[in-house]
Design brief:
38% of the residues lie in helices and 26% in strands. The chain is an alpha/beta fold and 218 residues long. Strands 3-2-1-4-5-6 form a 6-stranded parallel β-sheet, sandwiched between helices. Strands 7-8-11-9-10 form a 5-stranded antiparallel β-sheet. It is elongated, with a radius of gyration of 22 Å. The relative contact order is 0.10.
């Protein structure tokens, strides 16, 4: 995949590094020369450029990337204008870091395919893990549904999914089980599948139903 990362602050830099290490072609763009010099270590191509110069973007071939990641910090006007240009240049995926909800609305209006709030999302995940230590991670799918990863509570250990009957009792569904200390993940299992001590459960359900289970195992 050919990816352009605009803005090499902490977030943009780490996204570029992670994608580059996974073997993707990464084009790093920033107007700060010192950041671009450092980016040569973790990017296929590092370019000093004004991200709001549309003609320059096209001349550099950035209209042909598969994915664009926009992280221009507090420069709201620049991120909005760049997002608009990328959409007009028909870049298929445009992921933009927003600083507030108004910024998000404008970004979506001008063409962002996905808007993210890394700091807010990380804070919510941290709060969730502190609130319920059993919860290791969680993914909000919508306002109504979420997926959580949690250590199997003692009450579940040595019991089968049939015996637990979680869907009827709590309205939740175990969609995968990861064995403790192993890369083994079970996704397709029978009702007779037994939960072992140390197993990690990946659970899907409505927010209110998952909250009930979290209180049950706290």
């Amino acid at each position: 995949m050919r990816v352009a990362v605009f803005g090499l602050g902490i977030f943009g830099r780490n996204v570029a590094k992670a994608l580059f290490e996974k073997g993707h072609e990464v084009i790093a763009v920033d107007q700060e020369k010192d950041l671009i010099q450092k980016a040569q270590e973790y990017a296929t191509q590092a370019i000093v450029a004004n991200c709001t110069d549309r003609e320059l973007l096209e001349n550099l071939g950035l209209n042909t990337v598969d994915l664009a990641v926009v992280s221009l910090g507090e420069n709201l006007s620049a991120s909005i204008l760049l997002t608009l240009y990328l959409r007009e240049m028909e870049v298929k995926q445009i992921i933009v870091k927003a600083v507030n909800e108004d910024h998000q609305k404008i970004l979506e209006m001008v063409g962002a395919t996905k808007v993210i709030f890394p700091e807010r999302d990380m804070a919510i995940k941290l709060a969730a893990s502190l609130d319920t230590p059993n919860v290791l991670d969680y993914l909000p799918l919508s306002q109504e549904y979420q997926v959580i990863e949690m250590a199997a509570p003692k009450a579940f250990v040595d019991k089968s999914l049939k015996d637990l009957d979680l869907r009827r009792k709590y309205g939740i569904q175990v969609i995968a089980v990861r064995e403790s200390g192993s890369d083994t993940v079970h996704c397709l299992f029978s009702p007779e599948f037994k939960i072992k001590e140390g197993d990690i459960l990946i659970i899907l359900g409505k927010v209110e139903d998952i909250e009930k289970v979290k209180k049950l195992v706290s």
